[in-house]
Every structure is written in C-alpha cells, then in structure tokens.
Amino acid sequence: PSPLLQGKRGLIMGVANDRSIAWGIASACAAHGAELAFTYQGDALHKRVKPLAESVGSKHVLPCDVTDQASIDSVFETLGEAWGELDFLVHGIAFSDKNELDGLYLNTSRDNFLRTMDISCYSFTAVAQRAVPLMKNGGSLLTLTYYGAERVMPHYNVMGVAKAALEASVRYLAVDVGGKGIRVNAISAGPIKTLAASGIGDFRYILKWNELNAPLKRNVTIEQVGGAGLYLLSDLGSGVTGEVHHVDSGYHTVGMVAVDNAAA
Ligand code: NAD
C-alpha cells in the first residue's frame, strides 16, 4: 500500500522541542510521506525547531506568534507562494499565565483570561481562516485539547474554559467548511510531560492519577497521539469531522474506579 500522506502538504504549528505533541503528529505524517512546513514561536525556539524540521526533510521553517496577525498572514503568504495549496494543518498551541494554572479558577484575571482565549482558542480560528483558501482540494484541520474542557481538573482553570471554547469552535468550523470537503477535528490527549504541561500546578500528580485510574493503566505517548493524528489528517478519517477524539488511555470513560482497582 502507498503511504497515507504521499503527495500531501501540511503545516505543523506548535513544535517547541522533540517532546511536543505537534512533533509526535509531525513525525507520523512525515513517516507516511507528507511534505511538511513548520512554524516556531520566537528566535529562542528556532534553534530547536529547525533541526527537527530538517530531520524530516522540511524546507519551510517560519516564525509565527499567533498574537500577531501580521505574523500569521506572512506564514500563509509564504506557503501560498511556495506550495499554492495546502492539504492539512496541525495546531498544537496554547498558553496561559503559569500563576493562574494553580489554585482557584475564581481568581482568574481579565488580562490572562483574554490572553489565554486569544492564544489557545481564537488562534485556531485565525489560522483556519487563512488555511481554508489554500485547501483547494479539500483538507483536514486538527487541534489539541484536554479533558479539562469537559470536567473540572485541578489547576487547569482558565485553560479548561479556553479548551471548552476551542472544542465548540471545532464544531462551528466543521459546519462552515464541510461543503468544501474540509474536515475539522480535535484530539483530546491525556496528560503528557511537555514544556506547556510543566506550567500546570501539581502536573506530576495529574500524570500519576491518570496512569493509575485510566482503563489502560498507563499514560499516552506523543507517538500514540501521532497515530490518531495520522488517521484524522489522512483519508482514513475521511468520514470524520467536528469530532473531539480522546487519546487518553480511556480515562474520559471512567466515572469511578472500583475500590480493589483504586489509586490508593
Ligand atoms: P509544548 O510546550 O510542546 O507546545 C506548546 C506550543 O505552543 C509551543 O510550541 C509554543 O511555542 C506554542 N505557543 C504558545 N504561545 C504561542 C504564541 N503566542 N504563538 C505561537 N505559538 C505559541 O506543549 P504540548 O503539551 O505539546 O502542547 C501542544 C497542545 O497540546 C496545546 O494545545 C496543549 O494545550 C495541548 N494538550 C497538551 C496536553 C499535555 O498534557 N501536554 C494534554 C492535552 C492537550
């Protein structure tokens, strides 16, 4: 069988290092024949992202801070000129002030609320706006979310509220662009030790809790998220849109763990 993404071109946004979830998805896509472009946030990350991009043969490594409209525009202008069209996009971007990923949601400031929503939710819509005109033969847009959108998780706070809005935006976007043969989905990943996750209070405890209480009794890896990403980005997922697909060792299915099975 031919590789699933042979001849397809995709933009990967949100790689910070080789532990990033976006890198797990990019690796799976590259292994299945995709040609990739990458964005990085700020000069400090360029030196990390460039060698990763080059290791999968990428020729396009572009700066992009999603709070800056002009920087988003310039990514899509560059890709429009270089490729003329785009088949898929991965959005693995989120940010909130570390001080508010601890303690009570009740204490969220207006500034951080707006910033978290801008970077973690609106940016997906902003990039979709610019990607859709390039998806001339249909396409697939994918973002990353977390169970804290659906249920209260300790310390996730304003990020949970932003992820809930992100998941709703996946459904609205899916309807808006479905007629063009473009699909929009999210993967709800279980906790993974990454740069972004290290900002969340008691993250090690959250990891341990999931490991002990998820049906599979282990945490997920970026390779496992990559596998699900490949399915949603390729024709394997051609019947799927507006979906939030959990890759979390089944944790979201559990209401209560039996006593003989409990974490304690
Ligand atoms: P990561 O730190 O590797 O990636 C986060 C990325 O967001 C970084 O590349 C960072 O540069 C980028 N970013 C932040 N602000 C930006 C801005 N203004 N402009 C452009 N880029 C910006 O961490 P990750 O865990 O791989 O995060 C990727 C996605 O997965 C995020 O949406 C995160 O919420 C989500 N997620 C993570 C977990 C987890 O446990 N790690 C679980 C579920 C969902």
TrEMBL record:
CDD domains: ENR_SDR (cd05372). It catalyses: a 2,3-saturated acyl-[ACP] + NAD(+) = a (2E)-enoyl-[ACP] + NADH + H(+). Coiled coil: none annotated. Its EC number is 1.3.1.9. GO terms for molecular function: enoyl-[acyl-carrier-protein] reductase (NADH) activity; enoyl-[acyl-carrier-protein] reductase (NADPH) activity. It is an enzyme of class 1 (oxidoreductase). Gene3D superfamilies: Enoyl acyl carrier protein reductase (1.10.8.400), NAD(P)-binding Rossmann-like Domain (3.40.50.720). InterPro entries: Enoyl-ACP_Rdtase_NADH, NAD(P)-bd_dom_sf, SDR_fam. Pathway: Lipid metabolism; fatty acid biosynthesis. The keyword Nucleus does not apply. The keyword Oxidoreductase applies. Keywords: Fatty acid biosynthesis, Fatty acid metabolism, Lipid biosynthesis, Lipid metabolism, NAD, Oxidoreductase. Belongs to the short-chain dehydrogenases/reductases (SDR) family. FabI subfamily. This is Enoyl-[acyl-carrier-protein] reductase [NADH]. The lineage of its organism: Bacteria, Pseudomonadati, Pseudomonadota, Alphaproteobacteria, Rhodospirillales.
